[in-house]
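Hi team,

As requested, here is the filled-out complex form for the zinc ion run. I kept the field names the same as last time so the parser does not choke. Let me know if anything looks off before we queue the next batch.

— J.
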Amino acid sequence: MLLIDSHCHLDFPDFDHDREVVIARSQTLGVQKMVVAGITRQHWPRLWNTVSNTEGLYGAFGLHPYFLAEHQDTDLQALREQLQGYQHHPKLCAVGEIGLDFFLKDLDPARQIHLFEQQVAIAAEFNLPVIIHSRRANAQVTAILKKAKLPRAGIIHAFSGSYEEAMEYIKLGFLLGFGGAATWSRATRLQSVLKRLPLDSIALETDSPDMSPEWLAGQRNSPEHLPRICQHLAQIYGVSAATFAAHTSTNVRCLFGW
Ligand SMILES: [Zn+2]
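And here is what came back:
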């Protein structure tokens, strides 16, 4: 069973003491590739250092809405320069993690929208897919993506909306990322949405060290838990884990051109 973790943060200090061991263990368990998503300009070098030193790791650069207070307008030009520098590098796979977070009330929506729209335009400029964070913001994110008409679309990471919202993204060519959140027994609404989605629109992810599956409540998540997450989601979906793994991996491979 070969798997791809389409969204994680292996560059976070949570992994400083055992990063290499975690990656090796994950790969032994079949997690062949892992995408490390960017959060702030300051942390792009740390991310690139993590992915460029390790086989199977890929990176995305972006300004995450959660860290809004840290972003400057000059970071947009820095993003452009960063992408120019690594434009044809095989380890660069997307612009991300970018998006809108309307769940947290202290994040200025207008400022978020400005940075998101600009980054979507930059992704189009460089013909890169986007990795999107959307919390309580699916209508606004969809409207911005509709206008942008990105040639390579991307992934809606940790999708948590309705079936109708999912179908809007799918119409735009996007994959929907599922991981630990859908394994919780109380996540019945999310599970019923997952069951109705076409298999060719689903991507697997961990968002590690965050979004732990139910059996790891309160503990650090990591890509080595993806095989069990896959088994769990496959069961909900009603197919074998092998089928679920094969389809979701192919979806991600097609998106990134691997
Ligand atoms: Zn993330």
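Two things worth flagging: The two ends are 17 Å apart (CA to CA). Residues 7, 9, 37, 97, 207 surround zinc ion (CB under 6 Å).

Thanks,
J.
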